Amino acid sequence: MKIKSLETFILKKKNKKKSRYPMPSFFNEGFIFLKLTINSGLYGVGEPNPYSGKLDEIKDTLNNKIFPLLKNKNFNDINLNSLKKIIPIKNSNCLNSCIAAISQALNDIKGKEKKIPVFKLLSKKNFYKKKIRVYASGGMIYEKQDYKSLIEEALRFKEERFVGWKFRPKSPNILLSHIQRIKKPPPFDVKKLIKFSEELRLKVGKEFKLMLDLGCRCRNLDEAKYIIDALSEMNFFFLEEPL
């Protein structure tokens, strides 16, 4: 079974709704998907990370840099890791994201060929028969909003029997891309965040897991350590991307 074609699709909303708050760029620009087809007619789909590059860059990487190396190859013999070494590209994030999307599509094809869902294809043991404990990821507000508005959200997920809930510091009203935030982290009021965290812990109780995603926004090690020490006293489960 050989790779026959690769198509890319950009999905956009027809009616763009205006929001009081900034929206991620891909809400307006659209999401990109790929469709990989083999000569039997089976196809698989994949989705590159929209944060990994501009849509034209992602599309060019898929169609002009990766696909020529896959065309007419047996899809069972493809080694995607080897492609990273031979494709010249400046944006490694874009390349890795596109290869991950190709991997999704290949697994989709293999699952269809064997007539089993992909999660069974990837699982070496019967992990899918066990219950999976999951946490809810949310807790996003903007600078002019009050942290206390998040308490209702946390309590709702607790009632729905999630094991925990993850939230974030207030986002700036002028939205920055993920890459821009990493290069120049927008500051936030650390004391207000910690004060809210204390109140939140009292509301949800000791057993409910709490997590904080800082999105690389700590300005230095001292600030990160201050937050870590404070949240450790409140028995936070983990802290994501302080730096």
Low-pLDDT parts are none
Secondary-structure-based class equals alpha/beta
**Helix-strand pattern, N to C?**
EHEEHHHHEHEHHEHE
Largest sheet: 4 strands, parallel
Shape, principal axes of CA atoms: globular
The tally of helices reads 9
How far apart, in Å, are the first and last alpha carbons? 45 Å
- State which percent range the strand residues make up: 5-15%
Mean pLDDT: 88
SSE arrangement:
Layout lengths: L2 E9 L14 H4 L1 E8 L4 E4 L8 H16 L9 H7 L5 H23 L3 H5 L13 E2 L13 H9 L4 E4 L10 H6 L6 H15 L4 E5 L7 H13 L4 E3 L3
Parallel strand pairs: 4-5, 5-6, 6-7
Antiparallel strand pairs: 1-2, 2-3
Helix pairs in contact: 2-4, 3-4
Structure description:
- Helix 2 (55-70) crosses helix 4 (92-114) and helix 3 runs antiparallel to helix 4 (92-114).
- The protein contains nine helices and seven strands.
- The chain has helices at residues 26-29, 55-70, 80-86, 92-114, 118-122, 151-159, 178-183, 190-204, 221-233, and strands spanning 3-11, 31-38, 43-46, 136-137, 164-167, 209-213, 238-240.
- The N and C termini lie far apart (45 Å).
- 40% of the residues lie in helices and 14% in strands.
- The chain has 243 residues and is α/β, with parallel strands linked by helices.
- It has a four-stranded parallel sheet with strand order 4-5-6-7, with helices on one face. The chain has a three-stranded antiparallel sheet with strand order 1-2-3.
